[in-house]
Specification:
mainly alpha
Length: about 200
């Protein structure tokens, strides 16, 4: 409410639009929380009143959504200032994605870890070791090992092989599938789709 009030004082002609925009963002958040898991398109299509805003904006950009409420371009830029957090500018980012960010930021509110983000890393390591895991820092993985279309582990830059029933890669899709896995193990259709993907902008600022 303080944020809406502050924006309204700076842009008095846009007061109603600002209020209506954040009402819509709040409703989108509430509709999203009601969505069933797993989600099927008919869950939404058969309940148009229940998910009216999701149906309205699911295939629109945030710039499209803004235009329904805000006329002043400078105000639109201020409201959209957090777009690097979701990875694309308002003209390209999904209305639902950006609305979800604004719902989280201004309605639910951000939270911070007491003691800093290192606390989270330390807690994860503690849990890993509790269940018999081993943390190896500074260990570069160069290959994901596959036998009979099943992952069997990884190989490090030093040539060490680590067996694993499951392999989780936190590298991007191109690095994971084009560098860590031998391309012969993948279908040509999948590789073609991967090659056509456009990398997002860097999140580092």
């Amino acid at each position: 409410n303080e944020y809406i009030s502050m924006l309204s004082k700076k842009f008095p002609k846009e007061e109603k639009g600002i209020s209506d925009l954040f009402k819509a963002i709040k409703r989108l958040g509430e509709e999203s929380e009601k969505l069933p898991t797993p989600l099927h398109i008919w869950n939404v299509l058969f309940h148009p009143l229940k998910y009216s805003l999701i149906l309205k904006y699911y295939n629109k950009t945030f710039a499209d959504m803004l235009a329904d409420f805000i006329k002043d371009a400078k105000l639109g830029s201020i409201i959209s200032a957090g777009w690097p957090y979701v990875g694309l500018p308002p003209s390209k980012v999904s209305a639902l994605q950006m609305a979800g960010y604004l719902y989280s930021a201004h309605i639910e509110g951000h939270n911070y870890l007491k003691g800093g983000t290192q606390v989270l890393a330390n807690t994860l390591v503690k849990a890993l070791r509790k269940y018999g895991g081993e943390l190896q820092l500074g260990t570069k993985v160069t290959k994901i090992l596959i036998e009979n279309n099943t992952t069997t582990g990884v190989e490090t830059a030093k040539g060490n092989k680590i067996s694993a029933k499951y392999v989780v890669s936190n590298a991007d899709a191109r690095q994971t599938f084009l560098s860590l896995i031998v391309s012969e193990k993948l279908s040509s259709k999948f590789l073609n789709r991967l090659e056509q993907m456009e990398p997002s902008i860097s999140f580092f600022q």
